[in-house]
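Structure, all two chains, one model.
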Amino acid sequence: MTTTETPTRRITTAKAMAEGIALEMRRDPGVFVMGEDVGAYGGIFGSTTDLFAEFGADRVIDTPISETGFIGAGIGAAVEGLRPVVELMFIDFYGVCMDQITNHMAKIHYESGGNVTVPMVLMAATGGGYSDAAQHSQCLWGTFAHLPGIKVVVPSNPYDAKGLMISAIQDDNPVLYLFHKGAQGLVWMEKNPRSIAHVPEESFTVPIGEAAVAREGTDVTIVTLSLSVQHSLDVAEQLVAEGISVEVIDLRSLVPLDTQTVLASVAKTGRVLVVDEDYRSFGLTGEIAAVIAEHDPMMLKKPFRRLAVPDVPIPYARVLEQGILPTRDKIAAGVRELMS
Amino acid sequence: MNPLNRLDLYKQMVRIRQYESRILQEYHADKKPAWDIGAGLIPGEMHLSAGQEPSAVGVCANLKQGDAITAPHRPHHFALAHGVDMNAMTAEIYGRDTGLCRGKGGHMHLFDPENHFSCSGIIAQGYPVACGQAMAFKRKGTDHVAVAVAGEGAANQGAFHESLNLASLWKLPVIFVIEDNDWAISVPRSHSTANASNADRASGYGMPGVRIENNDVEAVFEAAGVAIDRARAGGGPSLIEIHTLRLWGHFEGDAQAYRGADLDTLDARDPIPLYAATLAEIGDLSMDQVASIAADAAAEVDAAITFATSSPFPTADDALLHVFA
């Protein structure tokens, strides 16, 4: 095989998602995309960039603003053996279509005693940090991970975005694919440099349910996901100067949750900070604490620490929003506290 | 359109009524002396379809293998008319391991992929799913159709309106069936719905709509035939509202005190004796046939109940299976 690709080919997370979808669409005629503004626009956050030009309106379908209607239609198409990739523009819009997601997409396989599969991907933009306020800035992955029957994947970088997308499309289960707007590499958002990176041109998969050790370290484990992985890596680099060695675990998926990778890291460092841009109570941070406590609480040299949105809606004004998000300075403070 | 076979329509209605009558008996048999909805051989809510046979039978007589149905919480008549295996369906209702869904679904969640049949307990939410099945049929280049069924109360849900718009916009082969049985549990149609006919709502979405009065199985058959032919030919969706009759409660245990004088005329409106009389009058049905059709139905239903009650239960550990494929 000859290739003109150079190992330095760098693309955004958004482009990586779209590449993953395109590869599957070329391979499998049963794959199609539908959602609001996924066509000529290419997805408000770039997730379907260039797909319309290649595959046309028959396979990249702009829908009316009818989330219940088109998510339900995705379910029906999946039940009949197609593999729809459906975009819910913002995860915050779940309120108008939650019945299809939780009572139908998530439950049909179980209710049918395993006789009916729903091989669909529901992708949605998550996260804040750009003053979009309370109805367009939530993460909510903990809400969906709590409900049985949906795999939940949450990529943090371009490589995983592509590999997890291909895995999600090939999966026979419904997969909720949550991508952070701030990690998409968009020109119209704050630049997070880790949102543009080398990604191979060819098809590859990243298995759903395997966390990644994004950075190895020995003093403190940060367990996190999505854009917070990027922030945590920045902090880890910064803390080298203070003599602190931070290990960063990128969960990559919440369902299934790779508890082994988390426990192995915590066993090594004995100090853990869970960083989550979702709400604090009854969510991911508490779940990780429970995983550790059920396994062996004596692993911890210091009390468990967590950093998450302190149970308030996401506020608008920059100072207010930055005050409640898990920003780099708060992550660094959390790590230092564990080392004090 | 399939040819009209009056005797087949009658037999199917009798078969369904026999089924619902026996399930009614079985459901109540071991809930005495103290009523407990979760007790007995058939636990949980039970929504029976007696009186609504004409809608299922008239519609399904026009369907073929490979066509899909999404039914609501009151699904038995459509399941049986569409060819769902009576034994497996009954075993599911009895919560047995041999059931359609190995005891995980129950009577409101019957899934039969072989017959593309499913139902959902959430009002109107089967409509979008049917649109997706129709999308798949169209994308695969088949002439199959999807039938979405719900009651008149469901026509006030957003999912109904989103689905009508989607199906019309994309010319999907969907037939929207509304069973207007006058009651959304206890709320009469006059208190729930601004339109006298949902056919008017269909025209608002650019599709044909008809309303059939009198719970008339032959009128349903004719209207469904037209709509299904149109959908198969690529003409897009249609809506059929059937003014039908809920002979029994919304669910078993519903005392129906709210129903008042409406209860007094039920016998006279029962569609099965009425249809038998019509057929007898035109010479298509004899008294002997009435008896033999009833006996055949009873035997089939008894066998299904025997199959169910002699089947094993799932084990408690089975509850952990099938969350994911």
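Chain A has a mean pLDDT of 97.
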